[in-house]
Amino acid sequence: MRKIQIGDCTLYNGDCYEVLKHIEDHSVTLVHSDPPYVVHSGVQKSEWYDRIGVNKQQEVLDNADISNGFDIETVLSELVRICKTPNYQLWCSKKQFPELLNYAIDNGYSWQDIMLYRNNALPNLNGKYQDKDYCIHMWKGRKITGEYKDRVTDYHWNIGGKKEWNHPALKPIEPTIHMLKVGSDEGDIVLDMFMGSGTTGEACLKTNRKFIGIEKNDEYFEMAVKRIGKVFDCLSENDIKLF
Ligand SMILES: C[S@@+](CC[C@H](N)C(=O)[O-])C[C@H]1O[C@@H](n2cnc3c(N)ncnc32)[C@H](O)[C@@H]1O
Q: What domains sit in the chain, N to C, each tagged with a CATH number?
């Protein structure tokens, strides 16, 4: 496990199932994370599916190891220990939504669903493509924060086009910023145990939150270090402490 500190951002290069065990009890205010989705369109044997890129998209997600979900029960039981009070914003696919929602209901948490619509996605009635992302914010023993404008529950964005960070599951920064404000205050610690390219870290820096990020893929970890370093405006090697 590698650890890099950039200002108030602590970045771990390792498997979150292991790294989470080392995070202090009741230290984190909010978990905002975009875990691997369960996305199986299956190989579509028609030329049409090849042409519109469904098989290619599945291949990219499979190669990045982000199409088989995560162990919800194990991760959530660590989060209960790590968080001051339960307070999780978890992105998910349609197939993961029921398990997460049932967890919130069974534990007596308050919850809110948040949708991120992909404006230019293909119609998805047959479930073969992803046209929206689901997020459940579940919490207990705290109040929602942020301003009226932050308490949005549906977001829209255009997929495709050139992106600054080349991660196959890049999330847009604006919704992340609003959501952090709803779930935490300035100075609080926010955790993302499936950090990817570091979108949550960038949002934390821009909203004065402290950040703990975990990413197991070396390439994506380096991307996050570069991105967070760039935002922090301290790319010089001297300012990045290596542990
Ligand atoms: C859906 S992506 C997150 C993308 C991120 N929201 C962004 O905007 O870049 C999930 C990430 O979790 C990472 N991951 C998967 N399993 C992991 C694990 N056990 N521990 C840490 N990271 C993991 C993947 O490598 C991937 O980068």
A: 2-236 (3.40.50.150)
**What is the rounded average pLDDT of the residues 189-217?**
97
The answer to whether the CB of 34 falls within 8 A of the CB of 171 is: yes
Q: Which of 60, 195, 211, 221 to mutate to test the pocket of ligand 1 (most atoms within 8 A of CB)?
A: 195
The residue behind tokens 């959501």 is: 179
Report which ligand 1 atom has the smallest distance to the Cα of 214.
Answer: 21
Query: For 93-108, how does the pLDDT look when each residue is reduced to its tens digit (9 = 90+)?
Result: 999 999 999 999 999 9
Pocket test for ligand 1, best of 130, 215, 221 (most atoms within 8 A of CB): 215
183 lines ligand 1 (CB under 6 A): no
Q: Which residues of 154-171 are buried (b: 16+ CB within 10 A; e: fewer)?
A: ebeeeeeeeeeeebebbb
Output the CA 228–ligand 1 centroid distance in Å. 16
Alpha helices (H) in the chain, listed in sequence order:
16-19, 47-51, 54-63, 72-82, 97-106, 173-183, 199-206, 218-232
What's the predicted TM-score (pTM) here?
A: 0.92
Dist CA 162 CA 231 (whole Å): 19
